[in-house]
Amino acid sequence: MATPTRARSRRGRHRKGRHSAPTSGPLSAVTGRWPLTLGVGIALVATTSVAVATAGGPGGEVHDRPGAAVALTDPSSDAEQAARDREGGASRSQERAPRGTADAGITVPQDATMSGGERAPVEVEAPPVLPGCDGEATGAGVNGNLPDDELCDLWNGYPPIRADAAVALARLNQAYTERFGEALCLTDGYRSYAQQVTAKAQKPTLTATPGRSNHGWGLAVDICADGYAGERWDWLKAHGPEHGWDNPAWARAGGSGPYEPWHWEFTAA
């Protein structure tokens, strides 16, 4: 006597159908539509063949009998199983299945954060405030006769000044340009000894003795008239010292020298 076959549900558990095949007679392969329960109240009908025992088969042959519908699962038991599965789902989700099993998974805490790992800081070198000038000065040379490598050209083709004074003045000019929308206007910078002699001849009361002027050290500039009047003058007086530049006390009104608001020196040197 053949033992009736039992279908396997999707969860891997064995369940017996509502209709059992006869227990006597040769086996006959019967093709039927089998409802598979997915969750509660949803059935999927699949067509399959099952070997059942039938009586009176000629010669013990196995025949396919299409259209025989056999219930694979009991809907009420499926609903109960689904409820049990839902109740146990939370606890199962907290367990970590062994690697390689069908239910393997990883539980991530709710407060977990993703990290890309530590990265070395990327240092980006800022562009030079005054291209071509490193801002380094050694103090070489004498008044009115400084070597070229001690001097740096300024913006707009203005006369050069000593490298450290030039970079500081360029920073002041950046702030000035942001405030007023245009660069600081200059009329003079470094003066060679010969240029000092010429300036003294032209303006004997307003220029220092040749060889003693701070222009000869590359540490002084003269600014245009619009820079030492009104709002721009007030701004320069307030922010020039922050960058090492100022109108020296002797050149101010009531100072020890002639009044020269246009004369600014690199006091940090």
Question: What does this protein look like?
Answer:
The structure is a single chain. The chain is 21% helix and 14% strand. With 269 residues, it is an alpha+beta fold. It folds into two domains: 1-87, no CATH class; 148-266, Muramoyl-pentapeptide Carboxypeptidase, domain 2. The model is unreliable at 1-73 and 90-97 (pLDDT under 50). The protein has helices spanning 75-93, 163-180, 193-202, 230-239, and strands spanning 27-37, 43-53, 151-152, 161-162, 186-188, 220-223, 245-246, 263-266.
Features:
alpha+beta, Muramoyl-pentapeptide Carboxypeptidase, domain 2, disordered N terminus, 269 residues
Unreliable residue runs: 1-73, 90-97
Report the helical percentage: 10-25%
Q: Beta-strand level of the residues, as a percent range?
A: 5-15%
User: Tell me, what's the shape?
Assistant: elongated
Element layout with pairings:
Layout: E1 27-37, E2 43-53, H1 75-93, E3 151-152, E4 161-162, H2 163-180, E5 186-188, H3 193-202, E6 220-223, H4 230-239, E7 245-246, E8 263-266
Antiparallel strand pairs: 1-2, 3-4, 5-6, 6-8, 7-8
Please summarize what this structure is.
It contains 4 helices and 8 strands, in the order ββαββαβαβαββ. The chain is of the alpha+beta class.
